[in-house]
Design the sequence.
């Protein structure tokens, strides 16, 4: 199968740091995407990791360990507008994506 | 104009009716996809196409069909809609490297 696991929900406080984890099966791996999705809207691209390590983009960073089948998305200096669902998606080859169920992040004041 | 345009944005239809969801893109990408999203679930791949003459089934193709009329157009049909096909449908395009662009979605309700 292509099980991609991520927590269902997380809560955090404005200004804090939160880490959203994602695990996946390592077979047929070509890359790992993170998307942000607000309710009823299209997913928007956050990051794409192909190689091991941490990639930083402003307040958002993404980490990948290919041998462990593990990735995380790190959000710093949380803002209320960061309340959304965060989707982890594995590129399984031929650019088809397999998505996790998403992690709903609620940022409170 | 949006890079990926889906029509309609919202649709309510009756059980047993045939319905077509349309998608057009201006990205110039060869690869196009249809995904379905149910509440609390991630996106599931219905069909994908890597060029006009290439159509492939995804994870959940039963009850759906597609047509790739041109490089820029990829439509999804429900031949006989049923209530459990009520969902949010997304069309997407990508280049070879997987740079995805999603449409705004079509919210379909089957009553």
Sequence:
């Amino acid at each position: 199968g292509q099980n991609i696991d991520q927590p269902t929900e997380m809560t955090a406080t404005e200004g804090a740091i939160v880490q959203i984890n994602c695990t996946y099966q390592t077979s047929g791996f070509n890359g790992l995407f993170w998307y942000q999705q607000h309710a009823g809207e299209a997913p928007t691209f956050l990051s794409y990791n192909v190689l091991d390590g941490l990639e930083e983009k402003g307040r958002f960073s993404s980490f990948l360990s290919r041998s462990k089948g593990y990735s995380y998305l790190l959000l710093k200096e949380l803002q209320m507008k960061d309340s959304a669902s965060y989707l982890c998606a594995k590129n399984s080859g031929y650019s088809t994506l397999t998505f996790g169920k998403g992690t709903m992040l609620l940022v409170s004041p | 104009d949006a890079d990926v345009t889906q029509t309609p944005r919202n649709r309510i239809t009756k059980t047993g009716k045939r319905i077509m969801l349309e998608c057009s893109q201006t990205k110039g990408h060869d690869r196009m996809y249809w995904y379905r999203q149910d509440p609390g679930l991630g996106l599931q791949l219905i069909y994908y196409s890597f060029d006009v003459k290439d159509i492939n089934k995804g994870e959940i193709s039963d009850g759906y069909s597609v047509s790739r009329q041109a490089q820029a157009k990829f439509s999804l049909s429900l031949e006989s809609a049923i209530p459990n096909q009520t969902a949010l449908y997304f069309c997407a395009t990508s280049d070879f490297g997987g740079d995805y662009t999603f449409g705004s979605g079509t919210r379909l309700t089957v009553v």
Remarks:
- Chain A has a mean pLDDT of 93.
